[in-house]
Amino acid sequence: MTTPDTPTPPTPSTPAAADGTRMSRGLTLLFAIAGGTAVANLYWAQPLLDFIGRDLNASSTLAGWLVTATQIGYAAGALLLVPLGDVLDRRRFIPGMMLCAALALIACALAPSIGVLLVAVTLLGLTTVSGQLLTPLAGDLADDTNRGRVVGTVVSGLLIGILTSRTISGLLADAAGWRAIYVVAAAVSVAFALLLHRTIPPLAPKARLSYPQLLLSVWQVIRQERAVRWTLFLGATAFGVFTMFWTALTFLLSAEPFSYSVSVIGLFGLIGLAGALAAQRAGRLHDRGRSMPATGFGWAAIVVSFVVAAFAGRSVAGIIVAIVLLDIAVQGVSILNQTRLFAVAPQARSRLNTAFVTCNFVGGAAGSAAASILWSAGGWRTVSLTGAGLACVALLVWALGRRGPLLTERSH
Known about the structure:
This protein has helices at residues 25-40, 49-55, 60-80, 90-110, 114-127, 130-141, 147-176, 178-199, 211-224, 226-254, 262-279, 282-287, 291-310, 316-341, 349-401.
């Protein structure tokens, strides 16, 4: 495996990245919760699409673009802002981004029309990248023997934030209207900004590059490392089918024969919580050298979950089985992908995370847009069979790609 020569190696004055004494269990838990609350900002609207559409006199198709717009903004933020984690003081940068996200959340709460709300959620996506800054920081502070566990815990926090956001959003919207969730989220973002500023240890920048050089180095890592390109494709596909499923699920549960309220739809997010908790162990599989076979099993499970979903359109029990299986598989694959990437260039983890998150959320934006189109064209079964087909393609790519020289199984 070649090592990218663009990122600047740490200077002697830079603290060693692998200082396990600084990544305590308490700090790991704080990073996981703070990251989860940040990434939840991307999904407050997902179970409320019909609710928001009716309130702002917008069609369900136009309301569905709220998720897409947020993810486009998030992909742009990951591309343009997350690389700065390698060259700025993250003790200041991460809380600063959380305060910017709080301002965007207030703009969402005050939006008078669907057009203004689309702009506001795009800005929210752009600024709510602190979770993706905390993940590589956790990788820097963990030592080699437990990096998979630490990163897995933080990433699981992000995934749990995604899942619980739907439940919290639905319950609060039923009680106080859809705007209330954005006000509450803004207050939480400010609180975590203050807490993280006090607890993140001081670390000197890992590289000294100009901003254009910093962005260019992201693409150079992708170009030089075949394993990175392979992993980014799998990550984008996984997140794309995941978002497609959850966006279409909102339409399914809002329509006949279910016609569930937004609070009930939000509760379905708790079903996937079991998957997030189980997938947390995926990081330990990486530490034990089982990352590659576990990734393959994960993709096979994604295929099965969509097949189950395709034939469970009117069965709540079948939908629940599909949710649990899909969430375990997608989240496990995501943790394994991200941990393997961090082994490529320790001095460039924020930039590698930039590539990973940008590709994921481009895939997520495509998935949410595809869900609206496929739902209009053929309903739930069309969405599910498309997801199964994409998962089969990814499983084939995994099978072919693992034969060549890929990332090491351990981050040593």
